[in-house]
Amino acid sequence: MWSVDSGEPARASAGDAARLPRVPASGRTSAGVRGIARVPASGRAAARVRGVAAGIALLALLAAMTSCAGGGEPGAIAAPPVAPASGPAPAPASGAASGTPAAVRVPDTLDFTATTLDGAPFSGAGLTGRPVVLWFWAPWCATCASQAWTVAEVAPAYRDRVPVVGVAGLGEQRAMRDFVTEFELAGVPQLDDRAGKVWRRFEVVEQSTFVIIDRDGRVVHRGFLDGEALTARLAALAG
């Protein structure tokens, strides 16, 4: 209210308040309620359905990503990686247990190569691990001829256990081959040592000489052996 005389707002008195029209409480409540927009119950239910659907879609996407990363079936959860066992790795088996033969050291006495009378390469390393008898002979030697029959007879029987190898020298290749044919020595390996390389290696200076090497590569005999002594030596080495 404004005062007409002074132009200033007039102060309300208790009497003025009594003269103001009263608005019923129900009217005020209705007016206030009408000022608020109501959301229908069906709208709220639809909003909840949309929220649930969005949550399900998100879970399906996460499950698909997990399946792709783990390489399993769709929807499967990849198992956590298993940590490797601690401690030293087991040593590989050696020798016969692994199926691979263990390396064998070739003794110095057998570390040589030569050529047979047939022209084939020969390696002394192939004799490693067995007793060996080397027979040094010459084609013109009468003593060698007398021993040749015994060698031809007994050597093949011990081929796998105690190899006997002839080392021909001090002669011509043709004469050496004729000697082998005449005394039927084809069953015994014969080396062509016309140059004397193997003879010098084993310090042989005359024929007929037998050099016996044990299974450890040690020379245990160098010298002459008659037929009976040679047979006895072969039997003892093979036993």
Structural account:
The chain has 239 residues and is an alpha/beta fold. 36% of the residues lie in helices and 13% in strands. The chain has seven helices and seven strands. Strands 5-4-3-6-7 form a five-stranded mixed sheet, with helices on one face. Helix 4 (142-154) runs parallel beside helix 7 (227-238). It is elongated and about 115 Å long. The relative contact order is 0.10.
- The strand order across the widest sheet is 5-4-3-6-7
Count of DSSP H/I helices: 7
Total number of beta strands: 7
How helical, in percent, are the residues? 25-40%
Q: State Rg.
A: 56 Å
**Spans of at least 5 consecutive residues with low confidence:** 1-21, 23-42, 67-80, 92-101
User: What's the overall average pLDDT, rounded?
Assistant: 75
Class of secondary structure makeup: alpha/beta
Strand content: 5-15%
Throw out a few tags for this protein.
239 residues; alpha/beta; two-stranded antiparallel ribbon; 7 helices; 13% strand; disordered N terminus
Describe what is shown at a glance.
This protein has 239 residues and is an alpha/beta fold. Helix content is 36%, strand content 13%.
